[in-house]
Amino acid sequence: MDIERLLIGFLGLGCAFSSLLYSSSAVAEQAQERQSVRFNARVTQYDNFPLNTSPGPGNGVYDTWYYYSYDNKPLREEYDFNEDGNIDKTTEWVNIKNVVIDTENKNSDQKIDRVVFDYTPFQEQNTSGHKYEFRDIDLDGIFDEFVAFTPAEFLPRQVHEPVASSVEFLVTMLEKLNLQDEKYFVLERTYTKYAELQRLRSKEEWQVLFQKTREYLDLPSDQVLPVELKFIPEEQIQDNIETVAKAKNLKYLIINPRATRNIDDWLLAIDHEMLHLLQGQRRFNELKGKEKITWDDLVQYHLDLINSVNRGMMYNLFKCPVSSSFYNTYITFARAQYLFDELEAHLYSYQRRAFYNPIYTRDNFTYSNKVFIRAFHELIQEQGLTIPEKYIPMISEVKKALPILSRLPQEQVNAVKTMLRKTLLQKP
Ligand SMILES: [Ca+2]
Ligand SMILES: [Ca+2]
Ligand SMILES: [Ca+2]
Ligand SMILES: [Zn+2]
């Protein structure tokens, strides 16, 4: 074990502790929550470096970022030790593939020179586990050394491969190095949760499938964001053959049991629609301020309106926790930000495909999704909408993808735009 890892282990403890104390003013300067570019995560940034400063580590520049799911499970750590803006070390929990992937860049050239695939944290009984490490010793962008750590032995090999960090790369390398048992181990770990979801899907065990899907995609559980699963009414199925799922009224996820049997499409649809529900809750938290209301209060108020439930004048005057002005502000914001919400959902649900697909897809975007992203982006520009602050990171990611998106045929983009304009006009 090298010193650096040990050090990071210590820092990790320190960070977890200070994140508990985050709201107290003593550590507020060192840790700060900021908007995450990962929609399913919260991120807290820390000032941990340089180490030997007084009164305590840090120089006022953030250098460490911890991402947590809304259920407080760790998702990712990023470190910029020398504060040059390039991340020097990352740790990512890829829950659906049962692996933690560490990357390290020792010379700040934006190229990874050490990758570790660690299966230990996900092994149920066994404490001694499987780990695979690639090293680029001379930092030329080519891996030179490989070591497989297995419960029984330690298998060092010389390699000569361009740097990569995907599970697909690991599988290819184990095959090339003729480490068949290790390859099967990795494949088994990669596919096991995916296969479980596939099995639940074919058995039509929708509730369990949905719960497991949320868990494996690191989406919030019912404790954080209550979601009720409903089936699309039989008479509407014909008009919605392609629809897998649809978020509705801040609380429901309507699913179409006749839609695809492909678990990939299921994951994509759930990820996308859950993001819409998360956007609703995120908006509530932004607008809430000092109001003493909860997310459940707002959802109830909304559902009462939709279902014309009247709880009586006394309730409305004295007991209803939600004021109509708060509700109206909420709805106004939701409508005004509709295009941004949709663009964000398309961008992130597709960007995440590489994360949950068992085999890494080089081109994360599907064709129709590229068309949608460009159509939404063009509509936002044509309408001259001011970009709300929280969407700025998302828009800049869309801009990065524009070279790929610009190759699409304009007629198709225009067709989608025409359709979207109609939808927008329909909104009351
Ligand atoms: Ca610092
Ligand atoms: Ca750096
Ligand atoms: Ca090398
Ligand atoms: Zn959507």
Question: Mind explaining what this structure looks like?
Answer:
Helix content is 44%, strand content 17%. Helix 3 packs across helix 4 and helix 12 crosses helix 13 (392-405). The protein contains 14 helices and 13 strands. The protein has a domain at 204-426. The protein is of the alpha+beta class and 428 residues long. The strands form two sheets. Strands 1-2-3-4-5-6-7-8-9-10 form a ten-stranded antiparallel β-sheet. Strands 11-13-12 form a three-stranded mixed β-sheet. The chain binds calcium ion (CA) (3 copies) and zinc ion. The site of one calcium ion has 7 residues, from loops.
Give the helices and strands, then pairings.
Elements: H1 3-20, H2 25-28, E1 31-34, E2 41-46, E3 64-69, E4 74-79, E5 89-94, E6 99-104, E7 114-118, E8 131-135, E9 142-149, E10 154-162, H3 167-176, H4 180-203, H5 206-216, E11 228-231, E12 245-248, E13 252-255, H6 263-288, H7 295-306, H8 313-319, H9 324-336, H10 338-351, H11 353-356, H12 367-382, H13 392-405, H14 410-426
Parallel strand pairs: 11-13
Antiparallel strand pairs: 1-2, 2-3, 3-4, 4-5, 5-6, 6-7, 7-8, 8-9, 9-10, 12-13
Helix pairs in contact: 3-4, 4-5, 6-9, 6-10, 10-12, 12-13, 12-14
One calcium ion binds at residues 47, 49, 58-59, 61, 63, 83.
